[in-house]
Amino acid sequence: MATEASGISLEGARRADEMASRSLLYSIAVSPGYNPMLHSQINDKLFIAQSDIIRNIHRKESSVIIGRCSDYILAEEENVLKVFVFADINDRINRISERQNISKQKATELIAKTDKKRSNYYNFYTGKKWGKLENYDLVINSASLGIVGASDMIAAAAKLLSEKA
């Protein structure tokens, strides 16, 4: 939806997705012909398109938006439950290792890279700190509750919120 709204190709969007995390020097070093102004414009254009889509979806229907700085984008909207799901590192390593059939070392590296990317993207576009508790209404440890238990808790909290509205 964001690629259609922004006019950015799907491949361009994939390359730019959550890429506020790359440093200018890294991008220049690994990408011959890298144009920092064009890259920034594509990222910003994609973020704006995604933000508009998230707001429109929220205003039209009940929805679950995962990531995309949606807590920040929907901060001024009513009937929004902002949730942050986390797990201890060992649980995450085991889950990723099994799900993607990779070694625990590779899973550890992937988690570190993904967390850095998500953190930098969120921090850049919101001016807030990713994972900081006060950004959310509910923080859940999926390692202690399990995926189903965490999902059930989120659903119960969302039901309470909708009854309150």
Would you give an account of this structure?
By secondary structure, this protein is mainly α. The protein has 2 domains: 1-63, no CATH class; 80-165, 3-Layer(aba) Sandwich (Rossmann fold), CATH 3.40.50.300. It has 8 helices and 2 strands, in the order αααααβααβα. It has a two-stranded parallel ribbon with strand order 1-2. The longest helix has 25 residues, at 36-60.
Short description:
The protein has 165 residues and is mainly α.
Low-confidence stretches: 21-31
Order of helices and strands: HHHHHEHHEH
For the record, the CATH class of the largest domain is Alpha Beta
CATH architecture of the largest domain: 3-Layer(aba) Sandwich
Task: Kindly identify the CATH topology of the largest domain.
Answer: Rossmann fold
Please compute the radius of gyration using only Cα atoms. Answer: 18 Å
**What oligomeric assembly is this protein in?**
single chain
Largest sheet: 2 strands, parallel
Given the helix and strand composition, which structural class is it? mainly alpha
Portion in beta strands: under 5%
Key phrases:
2 domains; mainly alpha; 8 helices; about 160 residues; two-stranded parallel sheet; single chain; Rossmann fold
Helix-strand layout with pairing:
Layout: H1 2-6, H2 10-16, H3 24-30, H4 36-60, H5 70-73, E1 83-86, H6 89-100, H7 104-126, E2 138-141, H8 142-164
Parallel strand pairs: 1-2
Helix pairs in contact: 6-7
